[in-house]
Amino acid sequence: MSITLEQAQTALDGWIAADLAISKGQSYAMNGRTITLANIVDVRSQIQYWERRISTLQNPQSSISYAIFE
Fold it and tell me: What ranges do the domains of the chain cover?
């Protein structure tokens, strides 16, 4: 499944909104789940994941890895 840059940005925006709500002592509902302060590590992990995905989509050349055979 290919994710577009727009879809990745939408996902990141949602996780950032969740982080902001949780940091204010609130819960946040997303995709049928309620996220609370106890889930803040998971939320921040998702933010990092989507930031990396966006970076890869914006700079596809930087995600190419090379193998050197001797």
Answer: 5-60
Q: Are 45 and 52 in contact (CB under 8 A)?
A: no
> Which one, of 64, 39, 23, lies nearest residue 31 by Cα?
39
Contact 22, 35 (CB under 8 A): yes
pTM tops 0.90 = no
* Residue whose pair of structure tokens reads 């890869």 in the numeric block: 56
Token code pair at residue 43 = 């939320």
Instruction: Tokens 């709500």: give the residue.
Output: 21
Instruction: Express each pLDDT in 24-49 by its tens digit.
Output: 877 788 888 888 776 788 989 999 99
Contact assessment for residue 22 and residue 30, using Cβ atoms and an 8 Å cutoff = no
Report the alpha-carbon distance of residue 39 to residue 41 in Å, rounded: 6
